[in-house]
């Protein structure tokens, strides 16, 4: 058995029937195509659907094995609606988001990302700015020196579409290497780092069926950064 086939797990017949039911609801006048549904060990919670030669190939994250039937029906509806460009029922979408954002599933997803995913850590020391020095200075100024330092690294690429991000699965702050430049003012780099540090302090929360990334508390604390306006203005023109 090849390594690829070893990573594919057939689903029970009941789950296949769920997808057939969802297809019939979305396309009642169309005969259902052959469907191949499998659990797959994605790095994170991910589900895919492909139409190839009139057959459907569906991969579900293996983290969803054992999910309630209502959640599996929501997934089937969402995937098929996207494929056939049908409106996605809001209730089904909300049901799926609530499930994957739940504490147990989210914790399992973080663990799987740590085990399966590889984080490319390059260096916190750049040509012009040292991220560890900036983190420690901001920690003293704004967090009483109490925030534990995560892994810090400049990005591998000179990305302009993503200033920085905090990866909770690998406890890593990544700052785009495009800002490791003598023409970039220090306050701009400090602001990006400060923003990502706030993500450590204010984790993403679920409010109803929506993920709250920047809570009121987050925004209020972000505005305490003395040069927030000047930094945002500079970053808009970079």
Description:
The structure is a single chain. With 238 residues, the chain is of the alpha/beta class. It folds into two domains: 3-116, Zincin-like, CATH 3.30.2010; 131-237, Metalloproteases ("zincins"), catalytic domain (Zincin-like, 2-Layer Sandwich). The chain is built from nine helices and nine strands. It has helices at 3-6, 13-26, 69-83, 90-101, 103-116, 131-143, 186-201, 216-222, 228-237, and strands spanning 9-10, 34-40, 47-52, 55-61, 151-154, 164-167, 172-175, 205-207, 210-212. Strands 1-2-4-3 form a four-stranded mixed sheet, with helices on one face. The longest helix has 16 residues, at 186-201. The relative contact order is 0.09.
Features:
Zincin-like; 44% helix; 3-stranded mixed sheet; 238 residues; 4-stranded mixed sheet; 9 helices
Given the C-alpha coordinates, what overall shape results?
elongated
> What is the CATH level 1 assignment of the largest domain?
Alpha Beta
Terminal-residue CA separation: 51 Å
Estimate the mean pLDDT confidence.
86
CATH architecture of the largest domain: 2-Layer Sandwich
From the helix content, strand content and strand pairing, which structural class follows? alpha/beta
SSE topology:
Layout: H1 3-6, E1 9-10, H2 13-26, E2 34-40, E3 47-52, E4 55-61, H3 69-83, H4 90-101, H5 103-116, H6 131-143, E5 151-154, E6 164-167, E7 172-175, H7 186-201, E8 205-207, E9 210-212, H8 216-222, H9 228-237
Parallel strand pairs: 2-4, 5-7
Antiparallel strand pairs: 1-2, 3-4, 6-7, 8-9
Helix pairs in contact: 2-3, 3-4, 6-7, 7-9
């Amino acid at each position: 058995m090849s390594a690829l086939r070893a990573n594919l797990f057939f689903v029970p017949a009941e789950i296949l029937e769920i997808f057939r039911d969802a297809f019939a609801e979305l396309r009642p006048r169309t005969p259902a195509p052959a469907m191949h549904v499998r659990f797959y060990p994605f790095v994170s919670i991910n589900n895919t659907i492909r139409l190839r030669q009139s057959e459907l190939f569906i991969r579900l994250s293996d983290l969803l094995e054992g999910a309630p039937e209502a959640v599996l029906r929501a997934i089937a509806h969402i995937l098929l609606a996207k494929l056939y460009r049908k409106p996605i029922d809001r209730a089904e979408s909300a049901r799926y988001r609530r499930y994957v954002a739940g504490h147990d599933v989210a914790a399992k997803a973080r663990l799987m990302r740590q085990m399966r995913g590889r984080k490319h850590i390059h260096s916190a020391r750049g040509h012009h700015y040292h991220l560890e020095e900036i983190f420690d200075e901001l920690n003293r100024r704004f967090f009483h020196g109490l925030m534990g330092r995560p892994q810090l690294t400049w990005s591998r690429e000179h990305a302009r579409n993503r200033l920085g991000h905090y990866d909770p699965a690998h406890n890593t702050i990544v700052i785009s290497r495009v800002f490791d430049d003598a023409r970039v003012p220090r306050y701009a780099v400090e602001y990006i780092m400060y923003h990502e540090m706030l993500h450590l302090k204010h984790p993403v929360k679920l409010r109803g069926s929506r993920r709250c990334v920047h809570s009121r508390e987050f925004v209020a604390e972000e505005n305490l950064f003395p040069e927030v306006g000047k930094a945002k203005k500079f970053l808009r023109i970079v």
